[in-house]
Amino acid sequence: MTIAVYPGSFDPITLGHVDIAARAAAIFERLVVAVFDAPAKSLTFTSEDRIAMAREALAHLTNVEVIGFHGLTVDLARRVGAQVIVRGLRAVSDFEVEMQMAFLNRRMAPEIEVVCLPTSLEFSYLSATMIKEIIRLGGPTEGLVPHHVGEALRQKYLGDASTGPVPRFLNS
Amino acid sequence: MTIAVYPGSFDPITLGHVDIAARAAAIFERLVVAVFDAPAKSLTFTSEDRIAMAREALAHLTNVEVIGFHGLTVDLARRVGAQVIVRGLRAVSDFEVEMQMAFLNRRMAPEIEVVCLPTSLEFSYLSATMIKEIIRLGGPTEGLVPHHVGEALRQKYLGDASTGPVPRFLNS
Amino acid sequence: MTIAVYPGSFDPITLGHVDIAARAAAIFERLVVAVFDAPAKSLTFTSEDRIAMAREALAHLTNVEVIGFHGLTVDLARRVGAQVIVRGLRAVSDFEVEMQMAFLNRRMAPEIEVVCLPTSLEFSYLSATMIKEIIRLGGPTEGLVPHHVGEALRQKYLGDASTGPVPRFLNS
Amino acid sequence: MTIAVYPGSFDPITLGHVDIAARAAAIFERLVVAVFDAPAKSLTFTSEDRIAMAREALAHLTNVEVIGFHGLTVDLARRVGAQVIVRGLRAVSDFEVEMQMAFLNRRMAPEIEVVCLPTSLEFSYLSATMIKEIIRLGGPTEGLVPHHVGEALRQKYLGDASTGPVPRFLNS
Amino acid sequence: MTIAVYPGSFDPITLGHVDIAARAAAIFERLVVAVFDAPAKSLTFTSEDRIAMAREALAHLTNVEVIGFHGLTVDLARRVGAQVIVRGLRAVSDFEVEMQMAFLNRRMAPEIEVVCLPTSLEFSYLSATMIKEIIRLGGPTEGLVPHHVGEALRQKYLGDASTGPVPRFLNS
Amino acid sequence: MTIAVYPGSFDPITLGHVDIAARAAAIFERLVVAVFDAPAKSLTFTSEDRIAMAREALAHLTNVEVIGFHGLTVDLARRVGAQVIVRGLRAVSDFEVEMQMAFLNRRMAPEIEVVCLPTSLEFSYLSATMIKEIIRLGGPTEGLVPHHVGEALRQKYLGDASTGPVPRFLNS
Fold it and tell me: How many angstroms separate the CA atoms of E110 and F118, rounded?
């Protein structure tokens, strides 16, 4: 049985993430979606919120489990018995970072394979940063994030005008 | 009559921006240069300053108007009756961001076209960040920014040593 | 009145080309789709066939005219009174070639602007070479090329097994 | 049981291909290495030779089978009951082609996933074209291709000076 | 005698930097490794620490000198009589930044050449940011940074949990 | 004394090549411009012509020598006592090929360094292929190739209409 880990910050989970998780869940027997518990202040949501939103978004995938973690992805993979780390591929800039991470991970854990899945075309232009910017500027999020995530983002950015990190991208 | 919007933060306007605006003004009947009023602290200049510097830099283009705006670029485009959003293209990294923004904007406003103009060769290596770094390190800015913008940058970075965000790039 | 030229070999015209032509026709008063009459043997269709297929594919766009041409694009642009050369942008590899061509064209004709239009997401993975390969291998072309072009390709590649240049790509 | 197809021309198989096949064989229950039987003249080896060299190079991988095929990769995948198409990723230029092929394949067979595996660092600069050029110029191939492939290449390029397509790359 | 300057923030020096310095020292008569004294808070180490770590890491290269500097790299080059600025090349993203910097530097000092050296394959995936992240997450740094740098990083990140800027990359 | 080799097909030499050679000649004590004697038919000029044109174009650089060669570049470098192979860098697509070649060359000759020089901005969009296309279509070549090379190209392409390989690029 091949177990795969899909690590990320999922801040918050988008339909692009859901797409990758569903693809991975179709290929591998079990998929562990691992929400990285980085103590960084530039996150929009807490670990608890990010895990909860991911769980709700992926509830329909029966062989997928969402957990939080800290430490190295390869250590997590070993802990859960995974042979595979899954990553989504969108653009050239993704590609280089993913290659770097794949080489570093292999160095630390040669027995674990990195597998890159191309995103669906319709999500290839999606990033959590862009979605936050759209929300902040009052734009629509249907088709970009799950409904409950859109609600959480709207509450975060529009319900509380003084809220934390303000992404600047779409109009930069 | 085709009206075009050229959005950006213009923090501050460079000769690369002026080049793109002039090209767009030659193609379209009217060009609205829209200075994004993002309330973010990582800006070097206030909205008022950015708008004023852009106005002075573009005063010679008679069919160009400079305005401030907040909200989504596509909403602004609709408000001013523009059918076109203009963007400058310099490098591969620009390209990917522009494609992402074009797809997102089309999703929100399919009736508005995104048009990318390649910069002049001589400005293809210019960015506001790099110019600020050159200024901060005491380098010359002739040929990079309009004269009045160079003055404003020098006052900002050299006249007040404790000033705000310090770009780190040229020597990184 | 802004006249634009959209040059290419159109061997044959795809729905990606039609998409770019429609976008350009919405922005500019008149669009001249210019089919390059290169005497190269690596073409699949004759100039006459390529022009005829393009004309049929673009017949619904009333301000679009299809012509054949030889020589430099900038000379053609001057001949038809165009101020703009239109190019489609799909991928990073497109981007570099387009930038090179834009710089060369400007050198030869500084008064003519190059305008790049991002393709629709659904056509961003399309190329004439890939379509020929799909046809040759017996795959479906609905949604990739206009119906009459699909017929012509099938006749070319499947009706006559010994036909000319055989693209090798999809399985390479 | 997840079955994967690893398609290619393998003209000839390199240690980079062997690396990807071994990685895929470690993840999936069964791997079908599919040698594309393209009737193109720019191939260096016949289908029979390419299949035989691949079989010898992969004989140590017990869950790997080498077959020839013609037609679309997605049709082959369906024929052999594969849910996955495996592709190697080396460089940015690979990346764009792979994304295009992934989107086209999904369009034709949405039930089949494309999985990209980053090559080992030591093979990231390898291509069959470069290896042929090295051979042709009398360079060493240890560590680039399996021993029997190096022999076959030397015989092809050095034993018969008038042989077929001459790659030009290393010194271009 | 050709003197070269290798500028950077070296925060801290990695084995990738050591590799580039050794290559440059083999080509040029004298190499000045110049540690940029940027007063930015996002640095992990002080200028003194960065210079000291670089000196220890490069002590085996007899024609290499490590100095601190502020101001423009081209001004430094002139001050030390260097005709060449050396830069390491790892990835496509490096490439674009280096090209931009080369063009800007030439504009300011046409008599000074920029020379890019490709990193060793084994260091092509290394960045100071990634190394800090690995350290912070408890991973091994053998083969990534000199021993004394690894110690300094571990003390910085693990000995003092409340320490400054926290890179987020590997699990993002 | 550092000797450098600048290898290429120089078919024909352009002002971009001259620019790189002049930069290298300013850094290194001696520069050997090595014209690759590939027996490929896709060349436009014979080895003799390519060498002669390069010699005339570089006659003003007193420490530069032009030779023909066949075989591997690293073997040539060893033969002439060079420690350095020089390559020009123009675009991202150049970059990847150069990195691949650098890694392969290091594998074969670890004692020889590869040094990449960014081209002048004004030549960054130049390629021999594009220049041939411009010539063939009747365009001007001032500022692209040395005068005698322009003459040779015009004679080749315009004086003899049935001449060899016809590049297709500018209008493709």
Answer: 13
Compute the nearest-CA separation of D171 from chain F (Å): 5
Q: Cα separation of B56 and A61, whole Å?
A: 58
CATH number of the domain within which E72 lies: 3.40.50.620
Q: How far is CA F15 from CA A49, C34, C136, E110, E112, in A?
A: 60, 31, 42, 17, 20
Residues D133 and F73 sit within 8 Å (Cβ to Cβ): no
Across C109-113, C132-136, D56-60, the highest mean pLDDT is recorded for D56-60
The answer as to whether B136 is a domain residue is no
Chains with 3 or more CB pairs under 8 A to chain E: A, B, D, F
Is A29 at the interface with chain C, CB within 8 A? no
Task: State the ipTM, two decimals.
Answer: 0.86
Number of domains into which chain A is organized: 1
Is pTM beyond 0.80? Reply is yes
Which residues constitute the domain of residue B107? 3-124
In a domain, B171, yes or no: no
Q: Is residue F136 part of a domain?
A: no
- For E86-121, the pLDDT digits (tens) are 999 887 667 777 778 888 888 889 999 999 999 888
- What type of residue is B172? S
For residue F93, give how far its alpha carbon lies from the nearest alpha carbon of chain E (Å): 9
Distance CA F146, CA F22 (A): 14
> Which chains touch F (3+ CB pairs under 8 A)?
B, C, D, E
pLDDT for res C50:
96
pLDDT tops 60 at residue C58: yes
Is position C25 within any domain? yes
Place of tokens 């090559």: D119
Question: Would you state the pLDDT for residue F164?
Answer: 42
